[in-house]
């Protein structure tokens, strides 16, 4: 009679170890492919629009910024896409309330930044999430 509770606790321990091991495997990212891509490859244009809008929403600047130059875009494929994007952005003449394409600022209000974005993308669901963002004055 004493053997049964012991076996039940062993079974529960084995299940717990299996669940921990499974959850660890789920957290590890195994990339199917990693390669540099150009800005015209789908869904890169939509991703660039997303990061520009997200940056402008979070920015405390009264003017919008826009991407002036793309330095590098790397695409990582797993069960989703991850884009690692490095761009130069400049302050425009448009205030945040304006949604048109504007010229970049010159003179006293000139400001250029270099940004790195890591973006989680599921394009078939139009789902985007910035995983990491780092912008510095250039």
UniProtKB/TrEMBL annotation:
One GO cellular component from the entry?
A: nucleus
Q: Which InterPro entries match?
A: CST11 (IPR042930), Cystatin_dom (IPR000010), Cystatin_sf (IPR046350)
Gene3D superfamilies with a match to the protein in the record: 3.10.450.10
Keywords associated with the record = Disulfide bond, Signal
What Gene Ontology molecular function terms does this protein carry?
cysteine-type endopeptidase inhibitor activity
- Per the record's keyword annotation, is Disulfide bond included, yes or no? yes
Q: Which CDD domains does the record match to this protein? A: CY (cd00042)
Q: Where is the signal peptide?
A: 1-25
The Cystatin domain, residue ranges: 29-136
Q: Is Disulfide bond found in the keyword set?
A: yes
Q: Name one GO biological process term.
A: defense response to Gram-negative bacterium
Q: Which family does it belong to?
A: Belongs to the cystatin family.
Q: Please identify the protein, giving its name as recorded.
A: Cystatin-11
Origin species, per record, is Cricetulus griseus
